Amino acid sequence: MYDRTVMTLRHMLIALGDPLVEVQVAPHGLEVDVRDVVIMDPDDPPDVAQGDLALVIGARGRAALPLVRAAGRAKAAAVAVKESSPALEQAATDAGVALLEVRPEVRWAHLEALAKGVLTTTTDDGEVLGDLFALAQTIATLTGGIVSIEDTASRVLAYSRSSDEVDELRRLSILGRQGPEPYLKMLREWGVYNLLRSSEEVVRIDERPELGIRRRIAVGIHAGSQPLGTIWVQEGDQPLTDQAERALLGAARVTAPHLIQQRNQPTSRFRENLLAALLTGRMDAATVAGQIGADPAKPCAVVVFALRGGEGDRSEHELRRAEMTGLISVHAAAYRRSALVSESGGRTYVLLPDLAPNAQLLSLTREIVTTARRHLHTSVQAAVGSTVSTLDDAQVSRQEAERVLDAMARDLDAEVATLADVRSQVLVSEILALLQDNPRIRDPRIDALDAESAKSLLAYLDALGDVRAAAERLHVHPNTLRYRLRRIDLDLDDPLVRLIAQLQLRMR
Predict the structure, then answer these.
(1) Which stretches make up the PucR C-terminal helix-turn-helix domain (predicted)?
(2) pTM above 0.85, yes or no
């Protein structure tokens, strides 16, 4: 059973992601409600109602004018066309309906399915939003245990894979059967279920060998004061990790959007696109803050993560990146409930709002990178943008973090860095990138040097003109180095020539 929710046109555009459609005109703004997605075909009578997003198929240019006007008369929220024009924009303005232009390569069937998917939420009898099984596996990785995610009726929605031995309670739960009654009675008597429903507190449950029950920790999943379900972590053959309880708290907050069935409650995809919209300037800070429950006037920062190296199987790399994003989401949510996480361009972006002046972002970031390296068996780099004074300045923090991560990818072996840590390296790295992309501003004589001459000259320049030190670094006789330098057609007594040569050689 499926229910349609109502969301504003602005939210619809964000949830669809970048950039399937572009707004041409919006006479009543983007806060109009979208209630349904319908098809308008020029060969059929218009069947459009108030609040519809109408997809105009089979009509372009002036041929679409009657359909745009009909949608306006029906008080549709918006009309989407494949090819806009000044005439269509004027007609939409006069009709009081928003006009969207769909990118040429986007298939109508794909757009219709995505838009309807955004408006569709599931009821208790339907499927769960999002990939809960992947999330359960991430939680298992972070806690070192065996995970199951249950709804408020104790039905198992997802569970982690495990090579460890599961106990009788988990086995019966996954099979859809009730656990041992004496054990369930004890949980009720201890108030475990009440605590899980009423608070975010992580609950510890001791093992009961006589019942075949191993040690567990559990946490409730909530939307405000509304309980949504529970995450259970059974201890396997090894003890749970030291960070298991903190990770479980973050996991509950990440899981909540997957389970929420309420009107206008953002799903995980919506939250991802919300961050992308903020960082690209497509949505103002106040609107984003209202959606995530943050204070736009408080400090915030952006941290950017990337896997090092993309060699080998592409599918495996993408899988690791998805696992990394899940891991980051759990840590970020544990640190700040209102944190946002999004992927873009092969990188994972984290917005941390509502920060205190002395927020320890470096320690949090190092913890995430260390955990990712240990569990994903690959290197991860992270750049921490400066803490800015308000959410309006989040783009400044993002741009700074990107500059640092770009330099780290090119020249630095560091795992975690800020601009203050590596400012000189970042500036040099950006100059080298400029030289790389613009051959016309390079000295062709330096580009023409053979490998031996280039290596010798760079060693000499790095040694500040000390021939003996440079020769020792190259493992050659000083006279050999002097001979090589004399063959180079450059005035090395000129400091500007030395500067340009050193930069170009570092680029090589």
Answers:
(1) 455-506
(2) no
